[in-house]
Design a protein that fits this description.
32% of the residues lie in helices and 18% in strands. The chain is of the alpha+beta class. The chain has one domain: 2-Layer Sandwich (Alpha-Beta Plaits). 35% of the residues are buried.
């Protein structure tokens, strides 16, 4: 069996206050600011990654980060509805990030861009189930 770890977690929030709270909580447990990206439908993408000027560009930016077109369109639709989106780049601490995100009100927390754990020779792509 090949064990894989996520490279990034994506999470949606109902409002920007909870998303900001999650960013602060992630930093408090040791995540660096450059490992956290936030797309607020009313603002630009924050963090150490590229900047997205409008929700219409969300899908293209996410596809560029390794999501499938369907996954990217799902997140783009959520952002258009007004839901902030956070992306957290992880190493071995995906469980910690997921717990923090969920405790801060995130929903649909999904891992993307999986890679093998040390000692593994196979790569595995994550195909998370996305909520309708």
């Amino acid at each position: 069996m090949v064990y894989v770890r996520p490279v990034a977690l994506f999470a949606l929030f109902d409002d920007r206050q909870w998303a900001r709270h999650a960013v602060a909580a992630l930093k408090a447990v040791g995540f660096a600011g450059e490992d956290i990206g936030q797309l607020d439908p009313r603002r630009r993408l924050h963090g150490g990654h590229s900047s997205v000027a409008s929700p219409g560009a969300v899908a293209d930016a996410l596809i560029g980060r390794g999501l499938t077109e369907d996954q990217a369109r799902y997140y783009e639709a959520a952002v258009r509805r007004g839901n902030p989106l956070l992306a957290v780049r992880t190493r071995d601490e995906a469980d910690v990030a997921q717990t923090v995100l969920q405790r801060c009100g995130a929903y649909d927390v999904q891992p993307f861009g999986r890679r093998p754990r040390r000692g593994s020779t196979r790569m595995s792509k994550a195909t998370p189930k996305l909520a309708a």
